[in-house]
Amino acid sequence: MLAAGCAVSLACAPAHAEYDVKIDAPKSIRDLLERHLDLSRYKDRKDITDDQLQYMVETIGDQVTKLTATEGYFVPKATAKLDGPPDHRVVNVKVEPGPRTTIDNVALDFTGAITQDAKRIDELKKSWSLQHGMAFRQAGWDKAKDDSLAALQSKRYYAAKQTSSQARVDPDESKADLSVGYDSGPAYTLGPLDVQGLSRYPISIINHVNPLRVGEDYSADRLQALQAAIQGQPYFSNAIVDLGDDPKNPVNAPVRVRVREYPPNRITSGVGYGTDTGASLEGRYQYLNLFSKAWVLDTQARIEQRRQYLFAGVTVPPDDKQYVNSLYTSMDRTDTSGTETRSYRSGFKQTRVRGIYETSFTVDFYYDDLRPDGAERQLSKALVPGFAWTRRDVDDPLFPRRGNIITTQIGAAVKGVLTDQSFVRSYSRIRQFVPVGQRDIFVARGELGAVITSGSGDGVPATLRFRTGGTQSVRGYDFQSIGNDVNGSTLPTKFLVTGGLEYQRWFLPQWGAAVFWDTGTATDNWSERRWFNGVGVGVRWKSPVGPIQLDMAYGIQQKQFRPSVSLGIAF
Question: Which regions span the lipid bilayer (predicted)?
Fold first, then answer.
């Protein structure tokens, strides 16, 4: 904020006013002054003259008052003194901010249709973030107004707007009275969908996942639910759902849905590395309009050092009850901990997603070939009807800080019905995220699995039994190295329990560190179980392609350090 006269003289005056700045002020305002005072901003410029420097020193009070007012300090005392020889001058700035202004009274005024909804007005007033006695800051004042308007617009009052605002500050008393006016406009209800951007795929795809009802009250969350349901379909790269820029009629206003379609042929690929199964290369081809009915043909191949996976399936679009049916077949080969497993699987799956809940009914046929180095080969098959239930309630699906993800599965097979051995299988997993402060996260994890059958489980397909150890289970141990140890080979078991606690400290928005403890067991006889524990530290990175973790874990029972790495890049 150099004066105009000083700015004009830049080109013609001698430029030799090099100097340093030292600011003596409380931390609450020191960073602000160091960033925004002209004396600080221009100290490294070579074209500042002595006159301009003197002007900035003499007007320091005005600048400080304007800056500290944004933090609630309206009566600061500021001095600036130029010291030192001509070749090493120092401007010493001293600021006493004075008392901080606090909020005394808040008045929120509402007009429009909301005046008939006293309960909603009361909710908005109670949720107003600046209360009596709190410090007044310009940033907080602006945010409170914006948040209140957004809350008003989120339910029923789509066209609400702020009509007035005033902050009356009494510097002598260090008090601020705040007043804001809002016009809610009319109450909106939802009408039929107005879908734009479709050319390849039928509109029934969108209609069948639409949870909205004509005539229901407008809700931003409800529109977001429709948008998420559309984006969850494989046919669309993007979807935007709103009521348009200027809906003319608030009664049954059309819901505008704008979609961007994927082309029918989609090819994706990627490379990665993990300490569990080594380096990986994967490819995927999808044809999204099989038989011109929007059936999805999906083929996948993933080649890793210790695992190879092939998949092919056909999925039909959701029906009018939001069920999605699919047929599939796969081959999965792993070679870990002295045991090679080849699993062949074919099946049918019916899935429905409603909000945060997903349910699936399956009928799968397994044919497994278990080839341990130190034991006899095991061939087993089973026809397994099953049910799975998942709850995903997190604030961010990619980088969650709050909420939980819960999965539970149950299945059964009967000997003689394409099955070698009768059994009931259950499996559950939970992951809980708890925010700590502004950035940190506490993560708790638990996992339970059981195969209930008479005698040994050798006749149950190996991939339906349990081994553990590795990046996603018990760090500090090799992948799937915890189980039945038979002559150096780790065989799958009937029972599984794992758990873990992790604290993540985020030093920067994208970078953090973690400390963790994992524990678990996999056994055929619960009375003979042996617990394996791992502790360690790690690095966390919120990369553009997703979360990446680099850990170093110590397996307490094996008394050995092991790295634990998981990363991948799609292209």
Answer: none
How many other C-beta atoms can be found within 10 angstroms of the C-beta atom of residue 554?
16
Query: pLDDT category, 532, cuts 50, 70, 90?
Result: very high
* Cβ–Cβ < 8 Å for 529, 520: no
Query: Tokens in use for 188?
Result: 């909106």
542 contacts: CB under 8 Å, gap ≥ 6: 399, 509, 510, 511
Pick the closest to residue 428 from 495, 381, 368, 482 (CA basis).
Answer: 495
Give the containing element (helix H, strand E) for 56. Answer: helix 50-58
Q: Sign of dihedral through CA atoms 479, 482, 488, 490?
A: negative
First to last CA, the chain: 48
In this predicted model, what pLDDT tens digit does every residue of 304-330 receive, in sequence order?
999 999 999 999 999 999 999 999 999
Length of the chain: 571
Q: What residue ranges define each of the domains in the chain, with the CATH number in brackets?
A: 4-96 (3.10.20.310), 102-183 (3.10.20.310), 190-261 (3.10.20.310), 323-570 (2.40.160.50)
Mean pLDDT, rounded, for 141-170:
96
Q: What's the whole-number mean pLDDT along residues 537-553?
A: 93
pTM to 2 decimal places? 0.81
Mapped onto helix, strand or coil, the DSSP state of residue 68 is: helix
Task: Retrieve residue 451's tokens.
Answer: 């195969």
Percent pLDDT > 70 in the chain is: 96
